[in-house]
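Lab notebook, design round three. We kept the backbone fixed and only want residue identities now. Task for the bench partner: fill in a sequence for the structure below.
Input structure tokens:
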């Protein structure tokens, strides 16, 4: 018996799939069971180390659903391959924890879970934006501490966003959803930096500008900046939505923080190492009106020394995708990736992942990041 004592579902299934954390909902289990899989789920909340995952996979493991907290490098992927593994899916849209090149060399398809996190993650970025700018957490602590002695003209003053400028770095799916929420909800102008223009987003904001103009209101504008610096200088709030790779590690460092307005807001719901967290602590100490909302941390789950003591920083534990619909949807997609590959199905090419979220799913693997490299498309 495995010392980790995993929960076993469908013990008679002919394909063995290891799941390194319990996932929400039941649909994902149905997908794997219908594909003839025996499911083994590691119990508990402890982040598993590589040795434990190798033990869990044992001598025979056809597929794995793993977590963004695990380093799926050549060692771990090699162990999966040695156990006969043919499929891996991250339970995440981001896959910076997976050595995709190594997986491709080992001919292991790597799945991820796009399309169900977009609005949910953007909503949390908006929540952090306003919590930081309107000092919600500080004010909550003040109330609970019994310090409120009556309304005062200067109590907890923050920043108004209506009509100001929102900056987005990385205007892909989630960055664009955040931009729309801020522009349409608060009539903000937008400036963004991305390697590629987001024409659909620019058109949406132009249409909204036309609509406002017809109402006799000022237009909103959208400008694609040539540099990250331009966004940092211009914006009243900057939200980060880039992927993490060597080019974006410490994208926001001490020098770039100095370019931001002293009372700007910085929000990060993408990946922690995009910000140099020590430099951020120093900057927040020097600029008490500068405010920050963080969902992710450079050395998760740890925080840089001093971060937790800062009143001008709102911190939450990597929960941007934590709505029931999204987390259950991610489970369905991860399961359908593994089940689809193990059944020899093609990669889904019809756009959108909603058909995978309930009931019988299409005969396809919804999202395989190395599909091209493996000739699966
Ligand atoms: C992801 O899926 O990459 C998110 O970070 C999970 O919240």
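Proposed sequence:
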């Amino acid at each position: 018996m495995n010392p980790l004592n995993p929960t076993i579902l469908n013990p008679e299934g002919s394909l063995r799939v290891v799941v390194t954390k319990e996932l929400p909902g039941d649909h994902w289990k149905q997908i794997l069971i219908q594909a003839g899989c025996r499911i083994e789920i590691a119990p508990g909340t402890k982040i598993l180390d590589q040795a434990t995952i190798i033990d869990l996979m044992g001598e025979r493991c056809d597929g794995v659903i793993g977590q963004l907290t695990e380093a799926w490098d050549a060692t771990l992927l090699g162990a999966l391959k040695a156990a006969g593994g043919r499929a891996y899916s991250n339970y995440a849209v981001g896959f910076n924890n997976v050595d995709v090149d190594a997986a491709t060399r080992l001919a292991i398809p790597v799945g991820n879970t796009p399309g169900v996190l977009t609005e949910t993650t953007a909503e949390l970025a908006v929540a952090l934006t306003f919590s930081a700018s309107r000092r919600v957490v500080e004010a909550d602590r003040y109330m609970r501490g019994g310090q409120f002695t009556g309304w005062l003209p200067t109590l907890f003053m923050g920043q108004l966003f209506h009509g100001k400028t929102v900056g987005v770095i990385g205007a892909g799916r989630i960055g664009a959803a955040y931009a729309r929420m801020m522009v349409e909800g608060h009539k903000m102008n937008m400036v963004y930096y991305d390697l590629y223009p987001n024409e659909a987003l620019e058109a949406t904001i132009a249409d909204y500008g036309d609509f406002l103009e017809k109402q006799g209101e000022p237009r909103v504008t959208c400008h694609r900046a040539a540099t990250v610096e331009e966004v940092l200088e211009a914006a009243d709030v900057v939200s980060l939505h880039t992927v993490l790779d060597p080019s974006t590690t410490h994208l926001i460092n001490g020098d770039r923080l100095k370019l931001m307005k002293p009372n700007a807001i910085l929000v990060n719901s993408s990946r922690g190492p995009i910000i140099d967290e020590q430099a951020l602590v120093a900057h927040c100490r020097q600029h008490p009106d500068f405010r920050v909302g963080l969902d992710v941390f450079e050395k998760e789950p740890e925080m840089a020394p001093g971060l937790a003591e800062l009143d001008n920083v709102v911190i939450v534990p990597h929960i941007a995708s934590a709505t029931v619909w999204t987390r259950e949807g991610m489970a369905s997609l991860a399961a359908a990736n593994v089940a689809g590959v193990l059944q020899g199905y093609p990669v889904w090419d019809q756009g959108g992942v909603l058909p995978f979220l309930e009931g019988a799913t299409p005969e396809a693997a919804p999202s395989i990041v190395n599909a091209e490299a493996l000739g699966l498309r």
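Keep this in mind before ordering anything: The chain has a mean pLDDT of 97.
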